[in-house]
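Hi there,

I know you've been waiting on this one. I reran it after we fixed the sequence typo, so this is the corrected version. Both the input and the resulting structure follow.
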Amino acid sequence: MTRKHGIGAALALAAVLIAAAAPAQVWRSDQGDGTYRNPVLFADYPDPDVIRVGEDFYFVSTTFANAPGVTILHSKDLVNWTIASHVVDRLDGDPRYDLKGGGDYRHGFYAASLRRHNGMFYLAVTPVGHKTRIYRSAKIDGPWTYRELDREAFDPALFIDADGTAYLGTSVGTDGTLTLLTLNGDLSAVTAAKVAYYNKGAEGSKIIRHDGWYYLFNAIPSKLAMTVSRSRSLWGPWETKSSIDDKTGGHQGAIVDLPDGGWYGFVMVDAGAIGRMTNISPIYWKDGWPFWGTPENPDHVPDRSPKPILGHPFAEPPSSDDFSAPKLGLQWQWNHNPDDGKWSLTQRPGFLRLHATEADGIWTARNTLTQKAQGPRMRAVVKIDAGGIKAGDICGLGSFGKYNAQLAVVGGAKGTRSLRMQLTESTVQGPRTEVRVPALPLAARFLRLRVDMDFETKQGRLAYSSDDKTWHEVGGAFPLAFDWRTGTFQGQQIALSCYNPAPGGGYLDIDSFTLSPLPEGTRP
């Protein structure tokens, strides 16, 4: 056997072993044969910024008002990602982060920029309406501390030049003027500000340096497109060319180098109800310009391509949970800062206990626990104990975002319980609720609740079972959608909630949560 054939056989065997060992997944980018398909994560991971530190890649993504916030993922090959940490345990600086005054949906923390410098990780992020923060940590999993700058820099692009000088690039798409803010030695203050370039409609800037050139990547949101600019100096003159767009791969991102000197691109694409996903693409260079894709198909992100780096096993962010760990898994985020007195993993070991918070609906209820929905077609099932539910409690499972479809156990008088299916739509006028099934009598205390989401048909369904054998659908199909104006500015999420319009409610005990692909042949 030749060395070439030996390597091929080893890769084939590894692919078989990986496929056999891993449980069924909603989406798998790594095909197990040395190739991957886009997106690398079929979920809402928007505004990507990716860096390499040695043989490790780190990817920071937007989380808005969710807590913990500012998620960082880790990969060895740009394809298989796990969650490394959240930079912000609790959002601070605004009472709306505690869901006061209507909350801060669509705002909060987004479009962060991550860099490594002098043994420290630095992350620039601007909470909407607040001054820019520079977080820092010696380790990617924290602890993180921050210093606040003296101004609000929209979509900050952190860049550290070869001489160690740090800059923040900032531009707003309604204009497109790129201003470079020079930072002091410890990246804690702005020492100078100077306009470096004008690119109509540009925002979401990323800056890198390569082979004597500075490269500037910008999103043009009005066109769902991206431009690439280059200059021998940060201060220009810059020359610009069009690059990819949402029809050919995405509109906001940049490029990152590999340990062997190659390059790959990362880019965000608007993908409807699932949200904004990240694609990974090979990069080739021509005449000093980076091009997405291959010379045979330039400026097109491939649907399927050879993996950037071979030899690393399948990995993905966690999803299913039996709640036996002492902390919530990194896949979980609250809709805003939680009320920590209203939930517990220790009051009943092996269960997540959600105490009812006082609210008039899910949109205003604290302690709604979410994780990202996954496409293209997913099923989530929770096993619950409804014995702690009291009169007026509304506790259950569903979708969260533009459309909030809930299948909830509702507490009645004298310990009775019923099932309710309601659909709340986020509108300009505020939440609008349709109660499709007001009160389905319920005798069982132990239940399984289920939510299916099909992002191909943009529909979902809810169901329950008292024996895990016979399932009963409730309320019919409900829509799935993404709406940055009135929704959460996120793709549809999976939500566990428990609230009561009156004070002094009970609680819901959740034994397990399981996420899996929607079985073939299942209707949307």
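Quick highlight: Residues 417 and 443 are 7 Å apart (CA to CA).

Best,
R. S.
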